[in-house]
């Protein structure tokens, strides 16, 4: 099967309705590894553009984590370029982690298989988050509901992507692979950020009484 816009559109619709069938079609298409990596990079670029448009239209407030009744830890949100870079690195690193962990848990998928299904999943999830960004700008009252739908599609899709990619035929084992791979990826990103001095910096700020964050 040749990769085309029609294929991507069909896979996107199936990922929402029937993710197992979607990833079986993706796997049978035998996407070259470099094409899958390019798709992940493209999804990261789209994420950066969407985040930038969202920031220009309504801004991006800092994150404030309460640490007591009167104090909170204020951290600046990552900018659009940083968000796009994180999306690319996590997409590529996450795909490799799913392959590495899955292989050690009896998975049969090769690197190209795993990158193929995860690349399509990342493009689908990116498209959903673009819709969430647009909704937050136009009809913000519906944005949170769509965000929950996007998370549901992402988690459900990840389980089926690993299941099909590694020929597990067990969503339970697929879930364990996804959890372990996520932990491995998180630790690798934290370690890499620490080495490069990119860890987020926070500032202690006073919280108004009764303020809910």
Automatic annotation (TrEMBL):
InterPro entries cross-referenced by the UniProt entry: Yip1_dom
- Asked whether the UniProt record includes Membrane among its keywords, one would answer yes
Q: How does it sit in the membrane?
A: Multi-pass membrane protein
Q: Where in the cell is it found?
A: Membrane
What organism, scientifically named, is this protein from? Octadecabacter temperatus
Main subcellular location: membrane
Keyword terms, alphabetized: Membrane, Transmembrane, Transmembrane helix
* This protein's name: Yip1 domain protein
Q: Which GO terms describe its cellular component?
A: membrane
Q: Does the keyword Membrane apply?
A: yes
Q: Which Pfam families match?
A: Yip1
């Amino acid at each position: 099967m040749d990769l085309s816009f029609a294929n991507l559109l069909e896979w996107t619709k199936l990922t929402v309705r029937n993710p197992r069938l979607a990833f079986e079609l993706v796997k049978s298409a035998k996407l070259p590894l470099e094409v899958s990596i390019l798709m992940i990079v493209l999804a990261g670029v789209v994420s950066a553009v969407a985040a930038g448009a969202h920031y220009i239209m309504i801004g991006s407030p800092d994150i404030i984590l309460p640490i007591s009744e009167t104090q909170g830890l204020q951290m600046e949100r990552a900018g659009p370029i940083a968000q796009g870079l994180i999306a690319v690195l996590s997409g590529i690193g996450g795909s490799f982690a799913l392959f590495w962990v899955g292989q050690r848990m009896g998975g049969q998928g090769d690197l190209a298989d795993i990158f193929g299904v995860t690349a399509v999943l990342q493009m689908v999830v990116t498209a959903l988050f673009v819709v969430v960004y647009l909704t937050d700008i136009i009809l913000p009252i519906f944005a949170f509901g769509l965000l929950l739908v996007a998370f549901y599609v992402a988690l459900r899709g990840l389980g089926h992507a690993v299941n099909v990619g590694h020929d597990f035929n067990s969503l339970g084992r697929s879930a364990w692979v996804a959890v372990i791979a996520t932990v491995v990826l998180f630790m690798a990103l934290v370690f890499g950020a620490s080495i490069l001095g990119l860890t987020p910096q926070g500032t202690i700020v006073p919280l108004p009484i009764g303020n809910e964050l």
